[in-house]
């Protein structure tokens, strides 16, 4: 079953292709040095990295908010640059904080992307209303963000990204601010939603369990500057639930990932001494 | 609504208490009527001159509103400019803040020299009194806009216009209303001062003439009406704020 999923992704065109990416902030050490990686359409890929290594910067590059010093970012079949893809609304960016507008209801927050794309208000609202139940947000449409729990706000934020972008979804540690119980609930929720929509997702996290539970592949960034990402395929059956975390295979994968992180971390400590 | 009424009971009781102290105190201590008239005499004077006072009240109100309206427009435009240009933030913003050290009262006669004894000198003084709080508070409101929301909108292909209308302006509204409430209260003082410096109509003119004639009861009736106007304008701004920022109450 798991292999079938991967086989299904094998022949698919690329949703994202990064080649020779270089970036550093003015006067600071480089964050990325000649980085290459690809994501296929319909894949759920996580990037696992320690905090402060440049994960959020990578997302800002991929969503066109900042430009790389050199290298190419090609998004979708038409291989748009990140800035083009943003302008053409091919990217669904879900930031770490929910960043909901406090003056807008759930309905109008979720409709933001459609509204910016020029969709008529009525039609945008209809599309939001249609999706609310499947995201567990039924009945919240006229509530304001401050009336919702952290988990619910992240759901609205996800729905906004879902309706705002087309080909590639960038999720930047969306559950990191939630408490442990809520986070598990949200991970299972995301698995369900992803099963329904099968969008291409690039998910950034520093949580090993989260990366394994959600992804088809995990890309590990252990060194700074990030010059390459080591890959681990997650051959767990889908649909998954948190039960999978108790599985023997899961623990093997976790051991493997911790080694990938740990070995390089150890070498980094050794190198810097 | 019920809760709002019960919340204002303490202040109503307190004001009534002060009124009683005024009325009884002036009699008990036999204060001369040209120093502090009895409160009841003030109301009698107000009633006797109601037609004249009503006319002057409307003139002053009109000056305050017109000046306030112009301040809202140029104050908001200045705030947008300060927000958009780093140069303006570094030059105009400190200048506006610094301009508050200028005693406007001293500057006001120049407004009369520039704009004459007609309504425009009064409007100008009102603008000098109110522009600052609207411009500065709105500029601070713009600066408080969450940059993450702006970044997110850019990834959704938002235009500059989208960013201004759907992100910057709504974020600045709470600051704008803080400025507006202060400006509403200041505007009456500005209009009155403008009238004091020269003019034919308005409560400023009325109170000045009354004070020249040592008619303290007429002065106080004018003052009470001016203060009522300030409170009314403030409450109107407060009501507008609550209506526009309804999301904060839920």
TrEMBL record, chain A:
It comes from the Bacteria. This is Putative hydroxymethylpyrimidine transport system ATP-binding protein. InterPro entries: AAA+_ATPase, ABC_transporter-like_ATP-bd, ABC_transporter-like_CS, ABC_transporter_ATP-bind, P-loop_NTPase. Residues 16-248 form the ABC transporter domain. PANTHER family: ABC TRANSPORTER ATP-BINDING PROTEIN, TAURINE IMPORT ATP-BINDING PROTEIN-RELATED. Keywords: ATP-binding, Nucleotide-binding, Transport. One of its GO terms (molecular function) is ATP hydrolysis activity. Gene3D superfamilies: P-loop containing nucleotide triphosphate hydrolases (3.40.50.300).
UniProtKB/TrEMBL annotation, chain B:
InterPro entries: MetI-like (IPR000515), MetI-like_sf (IPR035906). The chain crosses the membrane at residues 12-36, 56-80, 92-117, 123-142, 218-240. It comes from the Bacteria. GO terms for cellular component: plasma membrane. GO terms for biological process: transmembrane transport. Pfam families: BPD_transp_1. Residues 57-237 form the ABC transmembrane type-1 domain. Keywords: Cell membrane, Membrane, Transmembrane, Transmembrane helix, Transport. It is a multi-pass membrane protein. It is found in: Cell membrane. Belongs to the binding-protein-dependent transport system permease family. This is Putative hydroxymethylpyrimidine transport system permease protein. It comes from Paenibacillus cellulosilyticus. The lineage of its organism: Bacteria, Bacillati, Bacillota, Bacilli, Bacillales.
């Amino acid at each position: 079953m798991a292999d079938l999923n991967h086989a299904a992704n094998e022949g698919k065109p690329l949703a994202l292709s990064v080649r020779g990416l270089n970036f550093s902030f003015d006067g600071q050490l480089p964050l990325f040095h000649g980085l290459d990686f690809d994501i296929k359409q319909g894949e759920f890929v996580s990037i696992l990295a320690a905090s402060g290594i440049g994960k959020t910067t990578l997302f800002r590059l991929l969503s066109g908010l900042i430009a790389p010093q050199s290298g190419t970012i090609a998004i979708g079949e038409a291989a748009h640059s990140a800035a083009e893809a943003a302008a053409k609304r091919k990217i669904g960016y879900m930031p770490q904080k929910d960043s909901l507008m406090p003056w807008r209801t759930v309905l109008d927050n979720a409709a933001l992307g459609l509204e910016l794309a020029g969709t008529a208000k009525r039609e945008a609202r209809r599309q939001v209303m249609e999706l609310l139940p499947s995201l567990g947000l039924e009945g919240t449409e006229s509530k304001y963000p401050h009336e919702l729990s952290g988990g619910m706000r992240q759901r609205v934020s996800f729905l906004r990204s879902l309706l705002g972008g087309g080909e590639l979804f960038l999720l930047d540690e969306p559950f990191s601010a939630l408490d442990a119980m809520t986070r598990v609930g949200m991970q299972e929720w995301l698995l369900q939603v992803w099963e329904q929509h099968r969008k291409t997702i690039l998910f950034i996290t520093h949580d090993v369990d989260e990366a394994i539970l959600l992804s088809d592949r995990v890309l590990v960034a252990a060194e700074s500057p990030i010059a390459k990402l080591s890959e681990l395929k997650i051959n767990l059956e889908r649909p998954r639930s948190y039960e999978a975390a108790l599985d023997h295979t899961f623990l093997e994968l976790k051991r493997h990932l911790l080694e990938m992180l740990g070995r390089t971390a150890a070498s980094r400590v050794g190198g810097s001494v | 609504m019920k809760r709002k009424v019960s919340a204002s009971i303490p202040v109503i009781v307190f004001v009534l208490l002060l009124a009683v102290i005024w009325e009884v105190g002036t009699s008990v201590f036999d204060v001369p009527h040209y120093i502090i008239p009895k409160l009841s005499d003030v109301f009698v004077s107000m009633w006797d001159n109601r037609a004249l006072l009503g006319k002057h009240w409307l003139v002053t109100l009109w000056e305050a509103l017109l000046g306030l309206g112009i301040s809202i427009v140029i104050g908001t435009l200045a705030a947008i400019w300060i927000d958009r240009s780093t140069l303006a933030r570094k030059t105009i913003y400190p200048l506006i803040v610094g301009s508050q050290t200028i005693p406007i009262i001293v500057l006001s006669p120049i407004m009369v020299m520039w704009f004459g004894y007609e309504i425009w000198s009064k409007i100008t003084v009102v603008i000098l009194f109110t522009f600052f709080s609207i411009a500065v508070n709105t500029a601070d409101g713009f600066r408080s806009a969450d940059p993450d929301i702006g970044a997110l909108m850019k990834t959704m292909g938002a235009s500059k216009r989208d960013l201004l209308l759907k992100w910057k302006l709504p974020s600045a509204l709470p600051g704008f209303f803080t400025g507006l409430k202060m400006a509403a209260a200041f505007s009456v003082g500005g209009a009155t001062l403008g009238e004091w410096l020269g003019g034919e109509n308005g409560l400023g003119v009325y109170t000045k003439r009354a004070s020249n004639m040592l008619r303290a009861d007429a002065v106080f009736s004018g003052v009470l009406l001016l203060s009522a106007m300030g409170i009314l304008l403030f409450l109107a701004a407060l009501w507008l704020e609550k209506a526009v920022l309804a999301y904060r109450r839920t």
